[in-house]
Specification:
Distance between the termini: 72 Å
CATH superfamily of the largest domain: Thiamin diphosphate (ThDP)-binding fold, Pyr/PP domains
Strand order of the largest sheet: 3-2-4-5-7-6
Strand content: 15-25%
Number of strands: 22
Helix content: 40-55%
Shape: globular
Number of helices: 25
CATH class of the largest domain: Alpha Beta
Structural class: alpha/beta
CATH architecture of the largest domain: 3-Layer(aba) Sandwich
Length: about 625
């Protein structure tokens, strides 16, 4: 055998031993693999990620990843890893984010530097904005300096892609194989951080990938796990209990960090008499019909959610990073005098003035807070009943407002030249259909997303994923690919506008290639309606946010073999029949439904808060200086 062939055979033997033993650790323990192995950096990286539970790769291979690709080929043939080839780096990054977000499986994205890495990094903004940990591996320029490498940034400076990715989140360049252990240690600290996880970018230079190195498998960094942590100081807990006992009007803002802490949140809300206001990403943490659930609040918000925010005297902020739309660019709590903030991230913890900071794991902090309240004789709940009654009236007003839009007839539309469904009515029909079929819902950016988080009626965490952190157009349709990679897949429905769908239509091909079983519903109003509406609200005119091009999405989707495409019709009955027909397809289906855009108030859900954009800036910033928090 040549040296190259022997290296390949040794690699295959290791992969086979891992597969037969059930895991890398089991193979080492059984002696099927030596504890210290001589391997290429590429294989060492695959072994190191495998030790952290990473066995799934989403890849668009290029000249910068052929060596890593060869390792993945062998390891997949032996049943140790799986690689999913994709057609667009942005969509690939979204699918990886969804796999980690929805299913808790950490994947790795693979591409080369240059346009591919720039696109993958752009897509990773969704992971960074929503606190989702994903590995990104980019084949980088060589370290020898023999001349420009194709697709590197053509500038006489070192490590530019590593510096570029470090601006987005955390990054490390494997400049030498010996750096692997430190890279993986930093990687798991970032990707598996308990409170502020995000993407970790591994730069893998072309010339270091095939270099041989000795690796002690027993010392490879394991996946970081941390027990729930909470401050040992009782003084802040005592202060918080006193503040809650005294306050009569309390609002609890449940941010995206409350996902998965449903029980703890409900326990605190019921004990302290707080009106719970959701962020777009936290629907379901309190059941929709719970009397203290005031629905979403913020720049889009709801009648009831924004009422609670505007009139509360004490804010209990939990797991929220105070995004501009969630707290109306800082002016969402004009009557709040103090804040109790529960968060594991210190920067978010101290965002507001006059804050009593309760640092640590949300569930653990709430448990200690409840214990402290019991010692103090409770939170003085009777004093909060008048407040909860007033909030309940606003929730009823919001329910009536929604019902008018759900039950209204189709509306005459200038573009479609016929009556079509209002977008709230259409979204509600799909939302109800998803609940009846136990389907996960994914919302794309834009008007569909903005109306969607006002409409969904979830009873638990994990039924809706709305990427409001970055509001990345094309996220929802790309996210469906995660179900084809997951160990326990769930049927998903992507709610997308015509503009968002065309950002990542290659899901039609990737979805069929990898066996997605899910549905895309395209709500088509032939415009970027969220921005048109904003332009009209601020300047009384829309500008360059629509088009005159009619697209037959049924014909477009049907051109891809394996996709079932259905026209959604213009009435409730036609639309419901189309959804039912699409659901019978074992694979990827598409439903195209025209929806109304115009001045008729029944065609939208409205907005109820403030936002520091456009010609509203002067007013919002003037009010911000007057806030007490």
């Amino acid at each position: 055998m040549t040296d190259e062939t022997q290296l390949s055979q040794d690699m295959r033997n290791r992969a086979r031993a891992i597969s037969e033993s059930g895991s890398l650790d089991a193979a080492v323990e059984a002696g099927a693999i030596d504890t210290i192995v001589d391997v290429t950096l590429s294989e060492a990286l695959v072994l190191g990620l495998l030790h952290q539970g990473v066995s799934k790769y989403l890849a668009i291979f290029g000249h910068g990843s052929t060596d890593l690709g060869e390792v993945l080929r062998v390891y997949e043939e032996e049943g140790v890893t799986r690689t999913f080839n994709c057609r667009n780096e942005v969509a690939m990054a979204h699918a990886a984010t969804a796999l980690a977000w929805q299913y808790g499986e950490t994947p790795a994205v693979v591409t080369s530097i240059g346009p591919g890495a720039l696109q993958a990094m752009a897509g990773s903004l969704a992971a960074a904005s929503n606190g989702v940990g994903v590995y990104h591996i980019y084949g980088d320029e060589t370290t020898g300096g023999e001349g420009y490498n194709m697709q590197q940034i053509p500038k006489e400076q070192q490590g530019l892609f590593g510096r570029l990715t470090a601006l987005m989140w955390q990054s490390y360049t494997l400049h030498t194989p010996a750096a692997l252990r430190e890279a993986l240690r930093r990687g798991t600290l970032c990707v598996h951080h308990p409170y502020r996880s995000g993407p970790f970018y591994l730069m893998l230079p072309l010339n270091t990938q095939p270099q041989m190195t000795s690796v002690n498998l027993a010392t490879l960094p394991s996946r970081m796990t941390m027990p729930p942590m909470v401050s040992a100081d009782d003084a802040a807990l005592t202060t918080a209990v006193d503040q809650i006992r005294i306050a009569q009007r309390i609002v609890i803002k449940a941010g995206g960090g409350t996902r998965g802490h449903d029980g703890a949140l409900r326990l605190l809300a019921e004990a302290c008499g707080g009106a719970v206001v959701l962020s777009p990403g936290s629907t379901g943490v309190l059941p929709d019909d719970h009397p203290q659930n005031m629905h979403v609040g913020g720049s889009k918000g709801s009648i009831s959610g924004n009422h609670a925010m505007e009139n509360a005297e004490l804010l209990i902020a939990i797991g929220t990073r105070a995004v501009c739309q969630a707290d109306c660019s800082g002016v969402g709590y004009p009557n709040a005098r103090a804040v109790i903030n529960i968060n594991g991230d210190l920067a978010d913890l101290m965002h507001y003035a006059n804050t009593t900071a309760l640092a640590g794991d949300i569930g653990a902090v709430i448990a200690r807070l409840m214990d402290a309240a019991e010692i103090a004789g409770g939170f003085n709940l009777p004093d909060k009943q008048a407040w909860l009654s007033a909030c309940a009236q606003q929730k009823e007003a919001w329910s009536q407002f929604k019902a008018e839009r759900y039950d209204g007839p189709p509306i005459d539309d200038d573009v479609w030249q016929r009556p079509v469904l209002g977008q709230p009515a259409a979204i509600k029909l799909v939302s109800d259909f998803a609940k009846a079929n136990d389907a996960a819902k994914f919302f794309d950016a834009g008007d569909v997303q903005a109306n969607g988080f006002q409409i969904v009626e979830d009873e638990r965490t994990g039924d809706t994923f709305t990427e409001t952190g970055a509001s990345y157009m094309g996220f929802a349709v790309s996210a469906l690919l995660a179900s084809a990679m997951a160990e326990t897949p769930r049927y998903g429905i992507a709610f997308t506008g015509d503009g968002s769908f065309m950002m990542n239509p290659q899901i039609l091909i990737d979805g069929v290639e990898h066996g997605v079983n899910g549905m895309i519903v395209i709500f088509d109003n032939r415009r970027m309606a969220a921005i048109t509406g904003l332009q009209q609200a601020q300047y009384a005119n829309g500008f360059k946010t629509n088009d005159r091009v009619a697209v037959d999405y049924v014909a477009l989707a049907s051109a891809v073999g394996g996709v079932k495409a259905v026209f959604g019709g213009t009435t409730r009955e036609e639309f419901q029949n189309a959804l039912a027909e699409a659901r019978t397809h074992e694979g990827l289906s598409v439903v195209h439904v025209p929806v109304y855009f115009g001045d008729d108030p029944l065609g939208g859900m409205g907005a109820y808060g403030s936002w520091n954009v456009g010609n509203w800036v002067e007013d919002v910033q003037a009010r911000y200086t007057k806030q007490n928090i």
